[in-house]
Amino acid sequence: xxxxxxxxxxxxxxxxxxxxxSRQEEREVYSKKQIEELRxxxxxxxxxxxEYLSEIGAGSFxxxxxxxxxxxxxxxxxxxxxxxxxxxxxxxVLQFGCxxxxxxxxxxxxxxxxxxxxxDDDLGSVSRAEKTFYDYICEVIECLYKVQ
Length: 148
Hints:
Elements: H1 4-21, E1 27-28, H2 32-41, H3 47-55, E2 58-61, E3 66-73, E4 93-98, E5 104-108, E6 115-118, E7 127-128, H4 133-147
Antiparallel strand pairs: 1-2, 2-3, 3-4, 4-5, 5-6, 6-7
Helix pairs in contact: 1-4
């Protein structure tokens, strides 16, 4: 399993959250069929994202510190209609997640499908994380684990 260490960290974080909030984060682990459907729809989709969905699952962690979607969506589907005019960037993106501040986590659709972020205070540009999904999500989980 690629995400073994991260899964253990999330179990610990979820346990702490449940003790503090009387509620545990729920994530949907994707079946092989669901993964294959995503592969058909997006032939270039990163394998590390698909592995995350099949090992950890779609959903939130860390009191909704980060939410990973199972289905990719157009960025226009995430933002309120009144903000769409500000989404003025050249990159083609598909959103895979968000955080509580409303920051959109996206794949920049090119030959590498690297991770990008769209911040609420600058909807006109995509900040390139210059990381694969695996590197990005491991960094987020590690950061949260250290805080807990």
